[in-house]
Amino acid sequence: MNKIYQVYQVSDSTGETLDRIFLALKAQFSDFECKTIHYAFTRTKNQVDNIISKSKSEKDVIILYTIVDTELAKYLVSETKKNNIPSFAVLGNLITDFSKLLKQKATRIPSGQHALDKEYYKRIEAVQFTMSHDDGKRVNDLEKSDVILVGISRTSKTPTSIYLANRGYKVSNIPIVPNKGLPERLIESSKNTFVVGLVCDATRLLDVRRNRIQSMHEERPSNYTNEEDILNELKNSKKLFQKYKWPVIDVTRKSVEETAASIIKTLDILNSK
């Protein structure tokens, strides 16, 4: 049985760059099996200590990192050396270093990450699933989702879903519509599926909705851009999230990448339990 490495991707931002680099690196080694754990927004020594503590409890851990703060990066390196944990900065000579660590010769195939492997087909399947489950189109098989996003209109459900799908996650998103209950299938599925509630600042939401109507020339009910109604929508959605104990992410000042990174981080934590 091949050794399965635990690859910790530690980033002080969303981790998107690191993930892409690792995919390219992984493609160079045909006999390399691993489980990837993401640690996004790592910006304190306390967070590094928690990562090191976690890595000490597992076997065959490799840490890859992108950390801009020189002092924090040095601290991470010193802690990994102290605990004999291989760690690599992504700007280092990764292919050579991994070749030595894995005792394998790198294939040196350009664009190897685009090979039609299982990972590629997994992403294609995830995108197809997500597109067919956008905006509550399909609810009969929500339990097949890796993540279900729930929120009122214009809380970045669709762009976040598509971004996650391109990372290989099957995502369904369900809109909360005023005076209309949530699908029963969602309530049932949420017992065993990761559900996240998305919210946004009312003023920001009002601007987004107005711009949407103007740019798309859409016809919407007057309450769609009424600030008081929007506040009520948000209030009711938060009550639902609290009722079902779903984690909530405020997307007001977050990019889609940041929202997705937060979701992946939480999902990784849940899966590791």
Question: What report would you give on this structure?
Answer:
Strands 2-1-3-4 form a 4-stranded parallel sheet, sandwiched between helices. A 4-stranded parallel sheet has the order 6-5-7-8, sandwiched between helices. Helices cover 45% and strands 16% of the residues. The chain is of the alpha/beta class and 273 residues long. Helix 6 links the parallel strand 5 and strand 6 (171-175). Helix 2 (45-56) runs parallel beside helix 3 and helix 8 (202-216) packs across helix 9 (227-243).
Give me the Rg, rounded.
21 Å
* Order of secondary-structure elements: EHEHEHEHHEHEHEHHEH
Distance N to C terminus: 24 Å
Give the helix/strand class: alpha/beta
Helical fraction? 40-55%
CATH class label of the largest domain: Alpha Beta
Number of helices: 10
Low-confidence regions: none
| Molecular shape | elongated
Report the CATH architecture of the largest domain.
3-Layer(aba) Sandwich
Q: Give the rounded overall mean pLDDT.
A: 90
- The domain count comes to 2
Strand order of the largest sheet: 2-1-3-4
Number of strands: 8
CATH topology of the largest domain: Rossmann fold
What's the story with the biggest beta sheet? 4 strands, parallel
Strand residues, percent: 15-25%
